[in-house]
Every structure is written in structure tokens, then in C-alpha cells.
Write a structure and sequence with these properties.
The chain is built from 23 helices and no strands. The protein is mostly helical and about 450 residues long.
Amino acid sequence: MTKLLLLFVAIVIVFVPVFAQQSDAALRRVREQDSASRDTSGKLQTLTAAEHLSRAEAYSSNRLFPEAREHWSKVFENYPSDTGIAKALFGTARSYMWERKYTEAVRWFDKLTKDYLNTKDGREGLAFKGASYVRMGRNLEAAQVYEQYVTMFPQGERIESAHLNIIDAYREAGKFDEANRWVERTLQQFPGKPSEVNALHARLRMEINHEDWNAAVRTAGQLLSGKSFAGSMASSDEVKFLRAFAFERSGNKSEAATAYVSIGSSYFGGLARERRSKMGMQAIADVSPRNYAEFPVPFRSELLRESRKNKFDPRFLLAIMKQESTFRANAKSPAGARGLLQLVFDTAVKYNRKAGYPNMQPDDLYKPAVSIAIGSVYVAELKAEFGGLYEAIAASYNGGEDNTARWLKRSKPKDPGIFISEIGFAETKNYVFKVMNNYRTYRELYSEDLHRK
């Protein structure tokens, strides 16, 4: 390892605990200040606008949204001309969105865009208003909002994603001709850019959904004919898998078998091995080394106890834990996620009672037993919600339940590879790849009772 890389690793190792300590200390300080800033009836006193905004940010970054909104409300009531109003409106709207209260989120995004559309917060608010409509299932309204963004902000920060969101919104509304019209428009608007690949990928997903296998083979071939996948939502291995899948479903087994062999050692390579096996073809050898040191089994007793209680494979929780925190109990993210499983407090409080921790505080999530118990209940709930499809559980863990439900709904057939191709966030898609590759390796190395094979 080079000296520069060693220095970088050392900085990361030091920075994460220091960041967590600073963030947690800020939260404790704000809570103490709030306690001292209330009158005898418990009402929060009026402070300066800057102080209210600062305390709101401390709460919001730890996902304590009701507390944050209390401070933003004080700014609205007492400082209507303050320069921080747009930020407070955006924060309030996003907090409701994170809480899955989408109707209330839209109401606040409307307030923001009415008077502050010329600001960055206003532009962001317009985009997130469209996202809220999507999550409510009001896809035509979402498409209209995104079209408003495209018209008003042709150079906006989210202009490319707005085009792609329009395609998906019309598709989910059943307006397939309109969705394809926006595919063409996106291809013309962004030639040679990642959005060109993303638009063709959207068309490929629609063709698979409609079981138009010959069209899917053609579109996949178009994507594989010299297009660069850099920066896009797709990869060459994914498109090769979808092409092979389309060959298989069209009855062209020999072409499918050859296409599956062409896929590399990615997540889709593992799926390709499974597909060939189901087709009765010779298995593709997996030459991955058995690396127990890189895939350890810490907290074995806690994992076995909670996974048995909640009826899921403990190796999957290890796969999440490895990706989320690399087994560091003191890990904390800038979004306020804490502990081994990087649970955020507003999610954890939905499951803490069932997990046996009714009086949980945010810092309790740093305790391994607490994190594993609550995370296990959460994963079990997701498993029940998504029919045991571990790819969907991982997607939901990172990208949210409402989004995952949408992606699963438009996955036809309900195949893991088809589902992953429908994931609409690059971060979530990459997260699922990593978790599922971890899970595949843990299954190869350990039995379900976490003994080495």
C-alpha cells in the first residue's frame, strides 16, 4: 500500500469517529439549549433567526424532524423577510417527504416554489415536488411538474434527471407512446452523454415489461454497439444480461446461452450462471477466492439470536453490515445514520418497541446489540413486504420502501435481474450490487448458522 493511500485510510479512520462525536455533541448541546429556551408552559421562546435556523439544521441532520420544524416555524412566524426563509421552506417540505407524508410535502413545496422559484432551493423544490407526486402514484401530475422544470430551467442542475423522470412517470401512468416520445427527445437533447444511454435503457426496460423480446434484443444491441456506459444508470454487463434474458424468453436458447457466457464477474455474472443452470447448460465456473479475513462474522451470537427470532438469513444482515459500517459500531453518516447497521433514528423508532428497546435514545444505536435487534426487526418487516426478494430488501434499506414498491411493481417478470434494472437511483443500484455480492460470498463461505464451510 502506498504512503499516500495509507495516509488517506488513516484520515478516514480518524475522521468518521470525530465527525460522529462532533455531530452528536451538537445535538446534545441544542437539546440542552432548547430546554433552557422554553417558558414555564414549555413553549419555545423566540430567538434570532440565525439561531433558529442553526438549531433546525442540527435536528434535521439527525433526522429529528418535528424538533427541526418547531424552529423553522419560529422563523416563518417572526422573520418572514429573512434570507433563510427559502432554506426553511425547503427543509420543512423535505422533512415531510422523508416522513412519507407526501401530501403535506407538496403543500410546502408549493409555498416554496410560489415565491422562491428563482433560487436554487426553489428549483430543487420543484424537482422534489415531482418526486413527491411520483411517490403518491400521481404520475401525470409528476410528469407535468418535471416538464415545467425542463421548460423553465433548461440549464438547471437536474435537467437531465428531469427528462428521465418524465419518461418513467409517463410509463407508470400507462402513457407508453408519450414515454417513448420523451425517450426520443432525450436522445436528441443529450447525444453522447450518460442520459442518452439512460433513455435507451428506459426503452429497453419498457420493451421487457411488455414482453416485446425482439425489440428488447434490438435496443440492447443498440446500447452495446459502442455506447459508453460511464456515468449512466446501466452497465454493459446489465445490458448483456437483459439481452440474454430476452433471447431466452423469445425461445432462442442457443443465443441466450452464448450471451450469458459473455457476461463478466459482476453481480449479473452470478445471475448468468444461475440462468444457464436453470436452462440445463454447463455451469460457468466461479473462480472467486475464499477470503474469510475480508468476510468475518462478528457479533455471531446476537446475529443468530435475532435472525432466528425474525426468520431471515443472518448472512444477509452481515452483508448489509459490511457495506454500511464495515463492522464499526461507532460509525455515523452525515445523514445521521448510526451504528453497525447505520439506522437513522426516525426509522429505528418504528421498530424499537418490537425489538425490546422501548426507551431508546439516538446514541443507543451505537450499541451493537441494539443496532442488530432493531435492524433485524426492520429487515424482517421488509422481507414480508417484498415477498422475500433480498434484492428488494436491500434496495428498500437504502432507497426507501415507497421507491422499492414502485420499482418492484414495474418489474415484469419478477426476476432479480429485471428488478435491479428498474432501480431508479444510481446510489441504490450500486448499493444493492455490493450487498448482494457480499451476501453471495457469505453464502459461499458460511452455513446459515455462521460456521465456516
